[in-house]
Amino acid sequence: MLDQIENKLAEDFLDILSHYPSLLEESNVYPLLVEVFSFIKLNEGMMRVVFCENRSPVFLDHLKSSVKQRYFGDWKRIHFVKAPFEVDYFFSYFISGCIGLITLWLETEMKETPQQLAKLTERMILNGNHAI
């Protein structure tokens, strides 16, 4: 049963990603994040199970690989990265940070709105440690 729910969540999440073909355009970052955080809030109960209680590695690995395939493969090619391993490290840093943000948000009763968390996340993605 949990597998079916995780598969449906993953399918819905991938549908959200399909609306944003690139994160290379800064204008796509905030709307994508609002939609992702709104989706998480809408599915709060199951997201708590997946991110906080169960920490389903299959589900999280599926999400990680989907995001990486969708956004970071083309990024390497488009920017002619001289050291492709750096993109892999950046992706690991990026996705682990996003999972950490989601987990903390869920664990702290989602006090911030999806828009507030999306704005903070956007600043972190685009500005690194200058975001705070």
Topology, element by element:
Elements (H helix, E strand, L loop, with lengths): L1 H17 L7 H17 L1 H10 L3 H22 L5 H24 L6 H14 L5
Describe the structure.
This protein has 132 residues and is mainly alpha-helical. The protein is built from six helices and no strands. It has a single domain (2-131), classed as Orthogonal Bundle (Tetracycline Repressor, domain 2). Helices cover 79% and strands 0% of the residues. Helix 1 (2-18) packs parallel to helix 4 (57-78), helix 3 (44-53) packs across helix 5 (84-107) and helix 4 (57-78) packs across helix 5.
Radius of gyration equals: 15 Å
| Helix content percent band | over 70%
Q: Output the number of helix runs.
A: 6
Q: Which range does the strand content fall in?
A: under 5%
Q: Which CATH-level-2 architecture?
A: Orthogonal Bundle
Ranges with pLDDT <50 over ≥5 residues? none
Note the overall shape.
Answer: globular
The CATH class designation is Mainly Alpha
How many strands, which pairing sense, and closed or not: the largest β-sheet?
none
Number of strands: 0
